[in-house]
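Reading a protein record of the kind used here takes little practice once its layout is understood. The reader may check this reading against the record printed directly beneath this paragraph.
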Amino acid sequence: MSDIEKVIQFVKENGVKFLRFQFVDILGFPKNVAYPIKEGEKGLDELRDILENGVYFDGSSIAGFVGIQESDMILKPDVSTFSVLPWRPNEKCVARVICDVYRTEGKPFEGDPRSCLKKILDELKEEMNGEYFVGPEPEFFILKRDPHNPHKWVPADDGGYFDVEPLDEAPDIRRDIVLALENLGFHVEASHHEVAPGQHEVDFKFDNALKTADSVVTFKTTIKAIAYKHGLKATFMPKPFFGMNGNGMHCHQSVWLNGEPSFYDPDAKYQLSETCMQYIAGILNHAKAIVAITNPTVNSYKRLVPGYEAPVNIAWANKNRSAIIRVPAARGKGTRIEFRAPDPTCNPYLAFTVMLAAGLDGIKKKMEAPEPVEKNIFKMSEEEKKQLGIESVPSNLKEALDELECDEVLQKALGNHIYENFMEIKREEWDGFRTSITNWELDNYLIY
């Protein structure tokens, strides 16, 4: 039985009434069109046709896609992503399938973030018989309305790292989140309260980069939907509150070649292979430009400041969490690197694309990684960091975009369409922020 026929059979046996065809725009926001499934065999035949051939939509209204003169586009479903949405009613339930975006002449759309990631993964497979695995850790806040100001959102509890009831007031909502994610096929490994009040983390198992990117989008949608059902609000904003830790999305990653882990070498220094060291060198070499994609908002750089465990230092280390790259202690098949800069506002398809492109550039050019820095970089003076050659990531979105503008390797990985449209959108975002008048300015400067 084909995958399409399995979907048809499931729909028939479980009374699925609506099927959402989902994709993301250039910024990573999920979009969808819902298709109502008609009753009887005729309705199933119509569904079969649309699963095989896709559904037309207007691409001119999607950020970073196409102009009105070329608006017709096609969503072609990846039926392996078919899932029932657990937060929707059980009766006449709603399912979802993730799609690739195509032009009407049958070619993959060069501005589709999912197709962008698939392209570099295909190149890795063809050139090196390789596969890219990622395990992200997206953090989020659960918020409630301020009882003194209903227009303001505040942390929903006063808990801290690994706290339990009554300080942690969210075990029930995390329970519902975990159950919903498991119903969607996630392998949830752990859930816990994070450092800041109202901050949480739910960890799911690593997988190949495409499936993981799909999962990040689904993960964020699920958490927001479950929080809404509880009368609360979930946010993945990097720095929603001054003086508190922000939301990161540390990305554990490894490359396997010829079906074997390529980062482990039991006889090498630190038991890290030459391939792994070259990959680390590539990430470090491109880090200043990478963050334009992995930390793509003005607010991202309110998190990337010294203090609050912010991963701003361009160095690598074993265990040491003050470097932008950490190598966890696991070895063998578990050997991996952890890039700590990203935050969950990024488009995961594009973030994984540029991280892989940077790492592969290091491998292809046989770059040499510096020695690991095992001291706490957060406590070093600027002079000490200068002596060790430790630089910092850009301090704001504009600086990051300027770095990306000079990085031909990452531009090539993104492709002209995505690169140019992303830059245009983000330059406008920066100009909007730069020219806005904030409450902080009014509080401090009206006295002049």
